[in-house]
Amino acid sequence: MSTIQVQDDQGVRVIRFNRPDKRNALDLDMYRQLTEYLMQGESDNDIRAFLITGEGHCFTSGNDVADFLKNNDLGANHPAVRFLYCLLELKKPLVAAVSGAAVGIGTTLLLHCDLVYADETARFQLPFVNLALVPEAGASMLLPELVGYQKAAELLLLGESFGADDALCMRLLNDVVPMDELQAFALAKAHKLAEQPPEALGITRQLMRPHKHRVQHQMHLELEAFSERLKSDEAKNRFAAFLGKSR
């Protein structure tokens, strides 16, 4: 069974994290699949929008730490790095439906989505500093711009989890939807996007993102720092403690 499921539905490519026994933690093969399915959808004229979600009432618990540590050379061809830059370069709209845990990349990728919906069980967390790391996906720029410096500092420096209502107040979400309605609701919004004139939609998205090159540069700086942090004794000690607890 594939750990990334994909289904095309009336112009919408639905991409689903499908590793519920690991709380949909992303390993490198999942990153490869995600990038492949997004790039295929970008080149397919029948696909007008993407919807990303998770199986088993969980979005994603973040990176599969053990797998990530075995492949920690964050060069341009690293599957996670390719996925991050793919997110930034998407020309078609991306919708997210979040249920349960959205940890690390599970929260930062939402900053690249056009529409984000969650149910009342959603829990978000940015535990990078907790693990002696730094943020990724441009979050160190995008989050302060979205929620203000002090709130971003609280989220990134303390790394505490927060719920859907708080995420809505901080403008990380468009709406909070009952759990049994979330998937259908988010898919309906994605269908509406898919029905819009594609050229006008694409140009409007570009106009709304005038600082893409700044974000790209920030992502590069983050990845350089992230790579250095992975090699630090501080991070190695934190990861050893984390993996010890998870066993």
Give the topology.
Elements: E1 4-9, E2 12-17, H1 28-43, E3 49-54, H2 65-70, H3 79-89, E4 94-98, E5 101-103, H4 105-108, E6 115-118, E7 123-125, H5 139-147, H6 149-158, E8 162-163, H7 164-169, E9 175-176, H8 182-195, H9 198-207, H10 212-230, H11 233-246
Parallel strand pairs: 2-3, 3-4, 4-6, 5-7, 6-9
Antiparallel strand pairs: 1-2, 7-8
Can you offer a commentary on this structure?
The protein has a 6-stranded mixed beta sheet, sandwiched between helices. The protein has a 3-stranded mixed beta sheet with strand order 5-7-8. It has one domain (4-179): 2-enoyl-CoA Hydratase, Chain A, domain 1 (Alpha-Beta Complex). The protein has helices at residues 28-43, 65-70, 79-89, 105-108, 139-147, 149-158, 164-169, 182-195, 198-207, 212-230, 233-246; strands at residues 4-9, 12-17, 49-54, 94-98, 101-103, 115-118, 123-125, 162-163, 175-176. The longest helix has 19 residues, at 212-230. The chain is globular, with a radius of gyration of 17 Å. It is of the alpha/beta class and 247 residues long. The model has no long low-confidence stretch (mean pLDDT 95). It contains 11 helices and 9 strands.
